[in-house]
Amino acid sequence: MGTQNRRLNPIRAVNDFYENRRLALQTELDAQKTIEERRKLGQFATPTSLAREVVSFGISSMDSARNIKFFDPAFGTGAFYSALLAIADANDIAVATAVEIDPLIACASDSFWHDCDINIINADFTDIEPDDYYNLVICNPPYVRHHLIDVARKLCIKNKTEMTSGVKLSGLAGLYCHFLLQSVRWMEEDAVAGWLIPSEFMDVNYGKALKHFLLSEVELFRIHRFNPNDIQFEDALVSSAVVWFRKRKPTINCVTFTYGGTLESPNERKSISTDILYKETKWTRFPCLPQRQEKEHSPKLRDYFDVKRGIATGGNSFFIIEESRVLDLGLPLEFFRPVLPSARHVQITEIESDEFGNPVLPQRLFLLDCRLSEEEVRDNYPLLWDYLESGRESVGSGYLCKSRKCWYFQEQREAPMLICTYMGRQSTDNDSAFRFILNNSRATVTNSYLALYPHRSLLECLAQKPDLKRTVWELLNTITPDSLHSEGRVYGGGLQKIEPKELLNVDVPFFEDLDIPRDGGAYEQVTFW
Predict the structure, then answer these.
(1) Residue 24, class by beta-carbon neighbours within 10 Å (0-12 exposed, 13-18 middle, 19+ buried)?
(2) pTM of the predicted structure, to 2 decimals
């Protein structure tokens, strides 16, 4: 799609009137899909100011701003191309090529940019071969999570990425990782590339291969991370970064990390040695936090606890029922166990229990946890059978329930002594987004929490010193916000999240003063109420 040798209209390059028309076109096209449809396609348009900021920095990073050969593998309606026309001298743009997978958007964009010398290709970028080589690649690739990509297509893309870049990405990697890696072969030697992508790759396991490629196969020279509270895309809750590299083997041994503000005027700036970056698993700690000083024998949470995500029921609204409704339906209490409400409904940090071990909370919830076969339930508990039948089609056909031996069986997990909230936001700079909660009840937790189970050595100490449980809990809540947040990850709007393995890696130096032996062995399920 698109024709070659079109005459460039320089007036369009400097007149915001045309950019306003492009924004109107973008709004019109967005309105033709629901937000869910656009999320599945990873269609999140780049704001004008951000596009111009990125393109301006890209041009300034080139060896020469003359003879620009521009390429965008995920064009949309052309936010970056519009920025290029607004910033660069028209005579300095030698070639412009773009790829857009959506035929509706590609056709509309081709018509809109008809007067300009750009070739817009309607295709899946991961399916096509280079038509030329470019010295300026700027892209906001589709933000599509791995589970939204068709299995067969994901395998083809994964194989293509490995074949063209030599990088074997995890199946958990988002589509943007493949776009970045596959684009390098479209670049001239010494070409500059700027990628507006989620910053999550800097912290997660699937990002390791991409980070290694950026350090070893190209010259990574700048990563700018936007303040997560300054959401760049109104319709995507994602923390954004711009990754800059040149297509050449590294000639420098450090990378400039910037944070907040703009690319030209960041709030924080620091050069980080590539030797440090090879070792550091959490790149988002830079530039705001210092290099991690690993103490060879410093105790970690993993030395004393195992951490597991709370149970996934397969249908909370069906399996988790308020106490009053259990009684109203006449369901047998013997098949229910207490469960804590979601973290946003538990503002306290200590759960007390009644004489039966049930949590003393305004909202008393119970998890349906029946281990009897369907025949036994049908023959002996008719009211419970009726309730299960009411959810068989809607809940029992779900992915998780279908994978169980019996669709309503729940994971068997003892009530944890301590729990940690899984997601949260800081109310102030001195507050942590996560809370450690002491659980004195027999309540289990869902996957909105992380459950902490003591290792054997800690259990033995707790048996000898019952008051130690409270001491441990109080000390865990003294962990600094930076220590916790630097192990987790952050999303748009300042939403913090920490996974079990990340929590296990948190330093707990105070445990050395408690004289508790370290034990990396398996935890034991023990009831503490």
Answers:
(1) exposed
(2) 0.74
